[in-house]
Write a structure and sequence with these properties.
Number of strands: 14
Largest sheet: 7 strands, antiparallel
Distance between the termini: 25 Å
Region (Disordered): 439-458
Helix content: 25-40%
Order of helices and strands: EHHEEHEHEEHHHEEHHEEHEHHHHEEHEH
Radius of gyration: 25 Å
InterPro entries: Thg1_C_dom, tRNAHis_GuaTrfase_cat, tRNAHis_GuaTrfase_Thg1, tRNAHis_GuaTrfase_Thg1_sf
Strand content: 15-25%
Number of helices: 16
Strand order of the largest sheet: 6-5-2-3-1-4-7
Structural class: alpha+beta
Domain tRNAHis guanylyltransferase catalytic: 6-134, 221-349
Function: Adds a GMP to the 5'-end of tRNA(His) after transcription and RNase P cleavage.
Subcellular location: Nucleus, Nucleoplasm
Amino acid sequence: MANSKYEYVKSFEVEDEVMLPNLIVVRIDGRDFRRFSEVHEFEKPDDGRALNLMNACATAVLEEYSDIVFSYGFSDEYSFVFKKTSKFYQRRASKLLSLIVSFFSSVYVMKWKEFFPEKELKYPPSFHSRVICCASKEVLQAYLAWRQNDCGESEGEAQKLLKVEENVKYNENGTPVKRLRRKARIVHSENIAGKNFWNEHLSLLKEVGGFTEDVEKIKPEFVRSFQFENKLMPSTWIVIRIDGCHFHRFSEVHEFEKPNDKQALNLMNSCAVAVLEEIQDIIFTYGVSDEYSFVLKKDSQFYQRRASEIVSVTVSFFSSMYVMKWKEFFPQKELKYPPSFDGRVVCYPSSKILLDYLAWRQVDCHINNQYNTCFWMLVKKKGKSKSEAQHYLKGTQAKEKNELLTKEFGIDYNELEIMFRQGSLAFWLKEDKNMTHESKGCVQNSHKKEDKNMTHESKGCVQNSHKKVIVEHCDIIKPNFWEAHPSILDENLPIF
């Protein structure tokens, strides 16, 4: 992160660590999947292929994240149980629930054609997620019994992760060398919370612990009391920030151009626009590289201001859209593995602090882009190794970096594409036939054409409200932009 006078805004971020020795469960469930199943003509009462797609996604999650040792699912929901000693993402609830739901959503879209080769995926699926903080094994047992009871008469799907030995290579003398490799296997059981089922698997006993008694009576209200929920403070600005997970590797594997890949940035921008069109309470968003910050209106009651719902739905929808739009921006490149994003949600009590937060992100954009431009010029043009380039730039100031670019590479940093230097922003603009839109100091993109993947509700809302989403690249630190668009914050009080 860049150092600037706006750094103080980080103090508004809250810790949401699930403390040891609590057991962690992340549950995801489909958002408006009743309609999703109708639009995609799933068979009733159960569509075998749809259930197998959910199972395949859950299997991928277990194999991707070794700290998850068991999962149970039915219909459009899945619960993932972490090992008792897990320190994955420092046990931060927002990171866990957002990362799992993001990866699950990406896999769902990528595997769609595998299970429905004859059906078009008509719009991006999205999922809710939440953390259940189980204070004991008995609470976990009650939770699993509750979920299977909700499953009803069907047996549902129980999934466990086993360690199996595989021949991975051979010694010079031909002797096979074996190592433990974690694999997920789907099993069915009438009672996944029963002590016999749970205790017969040594891996579960080791990673979570065993059950001593069977559950006789389920009390859902007891289990619900352990749900890790943070209801956001009223009358404050809500910001959801999502970040690409391990996108350094993702960009290398997919051969993104350095220091900036314009198509990759435009893909991020297109996904951000889709989020604004989908979630009407989001009024503004700013993004750079593999991150985006979404601002909800101050009086928003979106999901009753429940943090887990807000961040999970946003991250899930963004992830699904990223996969669905990949070919639009990279028609010649295969998406080699599912992208994932983690997210957090923060409240800011005033417009001044909100704008300082956005200024902080834009300052970060400038400093990082200037450094990366110098770094990759040294690597690509001067033949320096990455460590040599890092050492060369260590301790240099902005002026020195600009001089390096000018003298060594003939590059005027201020002439580089404005999207690279200042990031991208998108917001709702009310349409007026008699109005011409000219933002002060901004470069405006043409309006995004209607997306065939947009939900029916979103299309109707955009058309009836006579609004459109505008994407721009400009300075949002100085007051010019905000003075030109006072309707974004919708406040009469001076903020500068």
